[in-house]
Amino acid sequence: MAKNTRKILFFVGLVLLGLVLPLLVRSSYWRHVLILAYFYGLLACSWSFLEGYGGQFSFGHIALATVGGYTSGLLGKYFGFSPPVSMLVGILGAGVIGFIIGVLCLRFRGAYLALFTIAFSEIVRVVITAESNITMGRMGLELSPLFAQSNKIPYYYNMFLFLVFGFAIMYLVVHSRYGLYLRSIREDQDAAEAMGVDITKYKVLAFTLTSMICGLAGVFYGHYLGILTPSFTSISTMGLVIAMAIIGGVESLVAAALGGILLEFGLEFLREVGTWRLVLFGGLLVFVVRFARNGLIAPVYHKMIGE
Amino acid sequence: MSDIELEVKGLKKFFGGVKAVNEVSFSITGNEIVGLIGPNGSGKTTLINTIMGFHSASGGIIHFNGKRIDNIPTHMRAKSGLARTFQVPRIFKRMSVVENLMVPLLTCTGGTFSTLRRRADEVMEFLTINHLANENAQNLSGGQQKLLEMGRALMLNPEIIFLDEPFAGVHPELQSQIYDYINEVNTDNKAFLIVSHNMDSIFTLSHRTMVLNEGRKIADGDPEEIRNDDRVIEAYLGDEEV
Fold first, then answer.
1. Among A183, A193, A197, whose Cβ lies nearest the Cβ of B95?
2. Which chain B residues have a beta carbon less than 8 Å from that of A251?
3. In whole angstroms, what separates CA B110 from the centre of its chain?
4. Model pTM?
5. Sheet (strand B67-68) strand order
6. Distance between CA atoms of A3 and A306, rounded to whole angstroms?
7. Chain A residues with CB inside 8 Å of B99's CB?
8. Distance to chain B for A84, nearest Cα, Å
9. Residue B22's closest CA among B222, B224, B215?
10. Which of A181, A188, A196 sits opposite B78 (nearest CB)?
11. Quick check: B1 pLDDT over 50?
12. A–B interface: beta-carbon pairs under 8 A
């Protein structure tokens, strides 16, 4: 069977599985886990897009998701925006912040972006905590629900749609000429520039796009849980997203997304073993970094589609 | 003769107190092949880096085909018709050979992957690396990587190509193959500036040879004259004969 046919069948199979899964999973708790797994899957996928394809190491994904979520929540709380409108503005807001970060630090090389985004994450967390009269600080900002009923099914399909939509956009980009430019930048910025690639422009565009994807995940997360607190913007949550992408396979969008989904599931599944699950998770990460640089899911995926 | 002209006037590049390139002026016109030689640390690669915009010039002006280019970024210089290779090949290792070639092609032309693929196929065939099209570039031998880098430069359809040590670490057979490629590309109205420590190659290929020493141009002229120039002999090889 041709590679493209296998690939199409693989994606169609995944989408069909995603569509029927809530009918097979009856437990509200596990439906909730699935929704969170898709949330992390989307973030891991967008991190893979930025790092795996563009070679840009960022710690800002969770902070950008927070920007999206809080923007949407604050617009709803103070200006009465309806969730669809405030969510859209939240996504754009995350994109604008991402663009500004990109312009400020992506013309530099090396660890600047990583350091800058660590600082940015802390700034976001501290500002939200400090401006408690506006953001409600540690009390948490309440966001209006997206759907009237408390049933998880509509939220499930909503997050699934966001995951597929975000993935599709990034997939189209990495398989276009822009994806080729991004990969050339990852490989060697000087050589890419000598070949006519405007490296700053494409790095900024990639960062802006991932910021909007993070915003998309963030606005959903806020409206789904109904509350956002500054603790969400922690470096440890960001570390979790990075680890998910690496364990899945950082140079493959689908592997990183599946890494996010399966690991979130795995972590919930092992909740009974308490803190030890995090030790197992850390051990798995160490194993992958040392012995499976291409991740654990990417090789399986490539084998399945015959690459 | 084509009407290509690169004009470098009083180019300087200082790193703190080190004058890596100091008041260097020269021009390349038509489809000249210019050899650039000089002892280690004389500023040859820095000169190319500065012309291409990897280093901002500390002084001087560069015109290419009548337009000033020292104030535009590297990628714009590449698109304007200047291409380069690196001393140590800097290919896109985790990309296939054909993807390496597609990057410059896509930056300088419109069109779809399939229509542009034909041009990549032509260049791979010309460089006899077409059998490696889908191979990961990091799996290529050193010589093949040199050819790929040269192919990548050709994909920009440049008017002047800077080759930095194209013969270093290359098997003699491949070396003569590279000679042939340079001569063939040259007949297509493309000029070359070749940096090499391989004097035989430079004197065989170049129409004109420039010599740098301690950042300054000390000689520029016919390769035979350069070979016998006392200043060059003294600066380049001490007492030894070139």
1. A183
2. 94
3. 25
4. 0.90
5. B18-29, B5-15, B59-64, B67-68
6. 6
7. 180, 183
8. 37
9. B215
10. A196
11. no
12. 68
Model pLDDT for residues A88-124, shown as the tens digit of each residue: 999 999 999 999 999 998 777 778 889 999 999 999 9
Residue with tokens 């296998």: A6
Beta strands B160-164 and B191-195, pairing class: parallel
Pairing of strands B33-37, B191-195: parallel
* Tokens linked to A30: 């596990």
Nearby residues of A58 by Cβ (< 8 Å), 6 or more positions away: A47, A50, A51, A113, A114, A117, A207, A210
Q: Is the pLDDT of residue A185 over 70?
A: yes
Picking from B55, B77, B92 by the largest number of A CB atoms within 10 A of its own CB, the best residue to mutate is B92
Residue of chain A nearest B89, judged by CA positions: A191
DSSP string, A278-303: HHHHHHHHHHHHHH-TT-SHHHHHHH
Chain B partners of A177 at a C-beta cutoff of 8 Å? 102, 106, 113
DSSP B162-226: EEESTTTT--HHHHHHHHHHHHHHHTTT-EEEEE-S-HHHHHHH-SEEEEEETTEEEEEE-HHHH
> Percent of chain A having pLDDT more than 90?
74
Interface membership of A141 toward B (CB under 8 Å): no
- How crowded is residue B96: how many other Cβ atoms within 10 Å of its Cβ? 16
What pLDDT is stored for residue B238 in this prediction? Answer: 62
Q: What is the DSSP string of A216-251?
A: HHHHHHHHHHSEE-GGGS-HHHHHHHHHHHHHH-TT
pLDDT band at B236 (very low <50, low <70, confident <90, very high): low
Neighboring chain A residues of B156 at a CB cutoff of 8 Å: 195-196
- The answer, for B108 touching chain A at a CB cutoff of 8 Å, is yes
Q: In DSSP terms, which residues pair with B192 in a beta bridge?
A: B33, B161
**Calpha distance B175→B173 (Å, rounded):** 5
User: Which chain B residues are within 8 Å of A192, Cβ to Cβ?
Assistant: 92, 103
Interchain contact A32–B (C-beta under 8 A): no
Residue with tokens 């200082």: B14
Q: Which residue from B minimizes the CA distance to A187?
A: B92
ipTM here: 0.90
Cβ contacts of A248 within 8 Å, gap of 6 or more: A44, A48, A255, A256, A257, A258, A259, A260, A262, A263, A295, A296, A297, A298
| pLDDT one-digit tens code per residue, B126-137 | 888 889 999 999
Closest C-alpha among B234, B225, B217, B242 to residue B21: B217
Question: How many residues are there in chain A?
Answer: 307
pLDDT tier at B242, thresholds 50, 70, 90:
very low
Handedness of CA A31, A33, A36, A38 (dihedral sign): negative
Of A186, A188, A196, the CB nearest to B75: A196
Q: How far apart are CA A35 and CA A52, in angstroms?
A: 25
